[in-house]
Write a structure and sequence with these properties.
By secondary structure, the chain is an alpha/beta fold. It has two domains: about 140 residues, Rossmann fold (3-Layer(aba) Sandwich), CATH 3.40.50.1000; about 60 residues, Putative phosphatase, domain 2 (DNA polymerase, domain 1, Orthogonal Bundle), CATH 1.10.150. It is built from nine helices and six strands, in the order E-H-H-H-H-H-E-H-E-H-E-H-E-H-E. Strands 3-2-1-4-5-6 form a six-stranded parallel sheet, with helices on both faces. Helix 1 crosses helix 4. The longest helix has 18 residues. The radius of gyration is 17 Å and the shape is globular. The mean pLDDT is about 95.
């Protein structure tokens, strides 16, 4: 029997939305258009979860001006491809619907606000969440800033909330403030890396979250 919670904070890309392939493709396009070495899928997957510009600095040894160029090309590529929405992971919509009946839900994401709002609109999922923090509103993961802002909004303590994510950055941001956490195995970081940050559980399917209410 697991602990039960009334508050859940979700990472978005790779946790709720199956968007990793699109992110990888757009970053590779941006690199090519910026005349930079094209990173491998694995290299891009490793930086998914942190905010866009810090991610770009991790991928490329470039200055601020060049980073802005990559950001611009990435956003153009993503917007062009975003006419076809990425799907939510299997069982996510139904599970969020059930969780919402007895718990408060939030999103803490490396996406910009505009990107999250667009994803919500395309998947008709905004109504599940009563608060969210994005890359342009807080320090990048693995800083706990997003989580702390959400805790303040809810007026609750870290131990009352469950954080769910697919990357070590998600696990670190929760671990830093002793927030209980669950990792998902179907995202971009492998199970072994995630388990180093002592999640309550590593789940293989989104619906397994129902055991925490």
């Amino acid at each position: 029997m697991y602990m039960t919670f009334k508050y859940f904070i979700f990472d978005w890309d790779g946790t709720v939305m199956d968007s990793a392939a699109k992110i990888v493709n757009c970053m590779q396009i941006a690199a090519k258009q910026s005349s930079l070495p094209v990173p491998t899928a694995k290299e891009v997957e490793h930086i998914i979860g942190i905010s866009l510009k810090p991610a770009i600095f991790k991928l490329f040894d470039i200055d601020e001006q060049k980073a802005e160029e990559v950001v611009s090309h990435y956003k153009e590529a993503f917007l062009a491809k975003d006419t076809t929405p990425c799907p939510l992971f299997d069982g996510a919509f139904e599970t969020l619907s059930t969780l919402k009946q007895s718990a408060s839900l939030a999103v803490a994401t490396g996406k910009a606000r505009r990107g999250l709002e667009r994803a919500w609109k395309l998947t008709e999922s905004k109504h599940f969440f009563d608060v969210s923090r994005c890359a342009d509103e807080a320090e990048s993961k693995p800083s706990s800033d997003m989580l702390l802002q959400i805790l303040t909004h809810w007026n609750v303590k870290a131990e009352e909330v469950l954080m769910i994510g697919d990357t070590v950055y998600d696990m670190q941001m929760a671990e830093n403030i002793d927030m209980p956490r669950v990792a998902v195995s179907y995202g971009v970081h492998d199970k072994e890396a995630l388990e180093k940050h002592r999640p309550i559980k590593v789940i293989d399917h989104f619906s397994e979250l129902l055991s925490f209410i």
